[in-house]
Amino acid sequence: MVESVPSVRAFYWPTLVALRGFEGPVDRSMLIRAAVESMGLTPEQLDAPGPGRQTLAEYRASWALSHLKVMGLAENVERASWVVRPEGLTVSEDEVYDIWREVSKRYRPRAGGDDADPGQTWVVGAVVDGIDQTPRFVEAGVWQVANPSDVEVGYLQSMRPGDRIAIKSSFVQRRDLPFENRGRPVSVNRFKARGVITRVGEDQVFVDWEECRLPA
Known about the structure:
By secondary structure, this protein is of the alpha+beta class. Helices cover 33% and strands 25% of the residues. Strand 5 and strand 6 (131-132) form a beta hairpin.
Protein backbone atom coordinates (compact mmCIF):
# COMPACT_ATOMS: atom_id res chain seq x y z
CA MET A 1 0.00 0.00 0.00
CA VAL A 2 1.32 3.47 -0.93
CA GLU A 3 2.07 5.63 2.09
CA SER A 4 0.33 8.98 2.17
CA VAL A 5 2.47 12.07 1.67
CA PRO A 6 2.69 14.29 4.80
CA SER A 7 0.42 17.31 5.04
CA VAL A 8 1.39 20.85 4.11
CA ARG A 9 1.91 21.73 7.78
CA ALA A 10 4.39 18.88 8.13
CA PHE A 11 6.53 20.69 5.53
CA TYR A 12 6.63 24.03 7.41
CA TRP A 13 9.64 23.29 9.59
CA PRO A 14 11.75 21.31 7.05
CA THR A 15 11.19 24.08 4.49
CA LEU A 16 12.19 26.82 6.94
CA VAL A 17 15.27 24.87 8.09
CA ALA A 18 16.28 24.29 4.45
CA LEU A 19 15.90 28.01 3.74
CA ARG A 20 18.08 28.85 6.76
CA GLY A 21 20.81 26.65 5.28
CA PHE A 22 21.31 28.82 2.20
CA GLU A 23 23.49 31.93 2.26
CA GLY A 24 21.62 34.58 0.35
CA PRO A 25 18.73 34.20 -2.10
CA VAL A 26 17.89 30.70 -3.35
CA ASP A 27 15.81 29.57 -6.30
CA ARG A 28 12.37 28.29 -5.31
CA SER A 29 12.78 24.93 -7.06
CA MET A 30 16.18 24.32 -5.41
CA LEU A 31 14.75 25.16 -2.01
CA ILE A 32 11.76 22.87 -2.52
CA ARG A 33 14.03 19.98 -3.49
CA ALA A 34 16.21 20.54 -0.40
CA ALA A 35 13.17 20.59 1.88
CA VAL A 36 11.71 17.41 0.40
CA GLU A 37 15.05 15.57 0.54
CA SER A 38 15.45 16.41 4.23
CA MET A 39 12.20 14.71 5.23
CA GLY A 40 13.30 11.11 4.74
CA LEU A 41 10.30 10.18 2.62
CA THR A 42 9.94 6.71 1.12
CA PRO A 43 10.41 6.16 -2.63
CA GLU A 44 6.63 5.74 -2.96
CA GLN A 45 5.99 9.06 -1.23
CA LEU A 46 8.64 10.79 -3.35
CA ASP A 47 7.11 9.46 -6.57
CA ALA A 48 3.48 10.31 -5.76
CA PRO A 49 2.32 12.58 -8.61
CA GLY A 50 1.14 16.13 -8.03
CA PRO A 51 -0.31 18.73 -10.37
CA GLY A 52 1.62 19.63 -13.50
CA ARG A 53 5.25 18.52 -13.42
CA GLN A 54 5.50 18.52 -9.63
CA THR A 55 5.41 15.53 -7.34
CA LEU A 56 2.89 15.71 -4.50
CA ALA A 57 5.71 16.24 -1.99
CA GLU A 58 7.07 19.17 -4.03
CA TYR A 59 3.56 20.58 -4.36
CA ARG A 60 3.02 20.53 -0.60
CA ALA A 61 6.47 21.95 0.12
CA SER A 62 5.65 24.77 -2.29
CA TRP A 63 2.46 25.51 -0.37
CA ALA A 64 4.42 25.39 2.89
CA LEU A 65 6.84 28.00 1.52
CA SER A 66 3.96 30.29 0.55
CA HIS A 67 2.50 29.87 4.05
CA LEU A 68 5.88 30.79 5.57
CA LYS A 69 5.80 34.00 3.54
CA VAL A 70 2.31 34.84 4.79
CA MET A 71 3.59 34.22 8.33
CA GLY A 72 6.40 36.74 7.79
CA LEU A 73 9.16 34.13 8.12
CA ALA A 74 10.26 33.96 4.46
CA GLU A 75 10.34 36.43 1.61
CA ASN A 76 10.72 36.24 -2.16
CA VAL A 77 13.06 39.11 -2.96
CA GLU A 78 12.55 38.67 -6.69
CA ARG A 79 10.74 36.25 -8.97
CA ALA A 80 11.33 32.64 -7.77
CA SER A 81 14.14 33.78 -5.44
CA TRP A 82 13.73 33.38 -1.67
CA VAL A 83 15.44 34.41 1.57
CA VAL A 84 14.69 33.80 5.24
CA ARG A 85 13.48 36.86 7.16
CA PRO A 86 15.07 37.77 10.53
CA GLU A 87 11.99 36.42 12.32
CA GLY A 88 12.51 33.08 10.59
CA LEU A 89 16.02 32.72 11.99
CA THR A 90 14.96 32.67 15.63
CA VAL A 91 11.51 31.09 15.64
CA SER A 92 11.11 27.57 17.05
CA GLU A 93 9.23 24.71 15.44
CA ASP A 94 6.31 24.98 17.88
CA GLU A 95 6.14 28.75 17.35
CA VAL A 96 5.77 28.27 13.59
CA TYR A 97 2.51 26.38 14.08
CA ASP A 98 1.31 28.95 16.65
CA ILE A 99 1.98 31.75 14.16
CA TRP A 100 0.00 29.97 11.43
CA ARG A 101 -2.97 29.49 13.75
CA GLU A 102 -3.00 33.24 14.42
CA VAL A 103 -2.46 34.20 10.78
CA SER A 104 -5.26 31.94 9.56
CA LYS A 105 -7.72 33.87 11.75
CA ARG A 106 -7.40 36.82 9.35
CA TYR A 107 -9.33 34.97 6.72
CA ARG A 108 -13.04 34.45 6.23
CA PRO A 109 -14.86 33.00 9.28
CA ARG A 110 -15.92 29.37 9.13
CA ALA A 111 -19.58 28.63 8.57
CA GLY A 112 -21.80 28.79 11.63
CA GLY A 113 -20.40 31.90 13.29
CA ASP A 114 -22.40 35.06 13.83
CA ASP A 115 -20.48 36.78 11.02
CA ALA A 116 -20.33 33.76 8.72
CA ASP A 117 -20.60 34.48 5.00
CA PRO A 118 -23.71 33.00 3.35
CA GLY A 119 -21.67 31.83 0.35
CA GLN A 120 -19.33 33.19 -2.29
CA THR A 121 -18.49 32.51 -5.91
CA TRP A 122 -14.85 31.96 -6.86
CA VAL A 123 -13.55 32.38 -10.42
CA VAL A 124 -10.26 30.56 -10.86
CA GLY A 125 -7.76 29.43 -13.48
CA ALA A 126 -6.63 25.89 -14.26
CA VAL A 127 -3.25 26.24 -16.00
CA VAL A 128 -0.34 24.54 -14.21
CA ASP A 129 3.14 24.57 -15.77
CA GLY A 130 1.61 25.84 -19.00
CA ILE A 131 -0.87 22.94 -19.23
CA ASP A 132 -4.63 23.30 -18.92
CA GLN A 133 -5.60 21.03 -16.02
CA THR A 134 -9.38 21.47 -16.41
CA PRO A 135 -10.06 17.88 -17.58
CA ARG A 136 -8.00 16.43 -14.71
CA PHE A 137 -9.56 18.75 -12.12
CA VAL A 138 -13.06 17.81 -13.28
CA GLU A 139 -12.30 14.08 -13.32
CA ALA A 140 -10.58 14.14 -9.90
CA GLY A 141 -13.10 16.56 -8.38
CA VAL A 142 -10.48 19.05 -7.16
CA TRP A 143 -9.01 22.50 -7.74
CA GLN A 144 -5.29 23.06 -7.15
CA VAL A 145 -2.62 25.70 -7.75
CA ALA A 146 1.04 24.67 -8.02
CA ASN A 147 3.03 27.68 -6.77
CA PRO A 148 0.53 29.74 -4.78
CA SER A 149 0.86 33.48 -4.43
CA ASP A 150 -0.17 35.34 -1.28
CA VAL A 151 -3.52 36.03 -2.94
CA GLU A 152 -4.07 32.37 -3.80
CA VAL A 153 -3.16 31.30 -0.25
CA GLY A 154 -5.80 33.74 0.94
CA TYR A 155 -8.33 32.36 -1.53
CA LEU A 156 -7.89 28.81 -0.30
CA GLN A 157 -8.06 29.83 3.35
CA SER A 158 -11.29 31.72 2.68
CA MET A 159 -13.08 29.06 0.61
CA ARG A 160 -15.80 27.10 2.36
CA PRO A 161 -17.99 24.08 1.56
CA GLY A 162 -21.09 25.23 -0.30
CA ASP A 163 -19.30 28.06 -2.12
CA ARG A 164 -19.68 28.13 -5.89
CA ILE A 165 -16.56 27.94 -8.07
CA ALA A 166 -15.92 28.27 -11.80
CA ILE A 167 -12.90 27.75 -14.05
CA LYS A 168 -12.42 30.57 -16.54
CA SER A 169 -10.07 31.01 -19.49
CA SER A 170 -9.31 34.39 -21.06
CA PHE A 171 -8.16 34.97 -24.61
CA VAL A 172 -8.34 37.40 -27.54
CA GLN A 173 -10.62 36.74 -30.50
CA ARG A 174 -10.98 38.59 -33.80
CA ARG A 175 -13.39 36.42 -35.78
CA ASP A 176 -16.70 34.60 -35.34
CA LEU A 177 -18.00 37.06 -32.75
CA PRO A 178 -21.75 37.66 -32.25
CA PHE A 179 -21.28 41.36 -33.06
CA GLU A 180 -19.36 43.53 -35.50
CA ASN A 181 -15.83 44.21 -34.23
CA ARG A 182 -14.38 45.50 -37.51
CA GLY A 183 -11.41 43.16 -37.25
CA ARG A 184 -10.32 44.52 -33.90
CA PRO A 185 -9.16 42.14 -31.13
CA VAL A 186 -11.75 41.50 -28.41
CA SER A 187 -11.03 40.09 -24.97
CA VAL A 188 -13.12 36.98 -24.32
CA ASN A 189 -13.82 35.12 -21.08
CA ARG A 190 -15.02 31.53 -21.36
CA PHE A 191 -16.21 29.40 -18.47
CA LYS A 192 -15.04 25.81 -18.84
CA ALA A 193 -16.46 24.22 -15.68
CA ARG A 194 -18.54 25.20 -12.68
CA GLY A 195 -19.33 23.52 -9.43
CA VAL A 196 -19.82 23.59 -5.68
CA ILE A 197 -17.02 23.19 -3.14
CA THR A 198 -17.63 20.11 -0.98
CA ARG A 199 -14.50 20.11 1.18
CA VAL A 200 -11.47 22.35 1.79
CA GLY A 201 -8.00 20.88 2.31
CA GLU A 202 -4.68 22.51 3.14
CA ASP A 203 -3.50 22.66 -0.47
CA GLN A 204 -6.62 22.02 -2.57
CA VAL A 205 -10.39 22.14 -2.55
CA PHE A 206 -12.72 19.29 -3.47
CA VAL A 207 -15.43 20.21 -5.95
CA ASP A 208 -18.56 18.68 -7.45
CA TRP A 209 -17.76 19.86 -10.98
CA GLU A 210 -19.98 20.20 -14.05
CA GLU A 211 -18.33 20.94 -17.39
CA CYS A 212 -19.73 23.90 -19.30
CA ARG A 213 -20.76 23.25 -22.88
CA LEU A 214 -18.69 25.31 -25.29
CA PRO A 215 -20.35 26.90 -28.33
CA ALA A 216 -20.09 24.88 -31.52
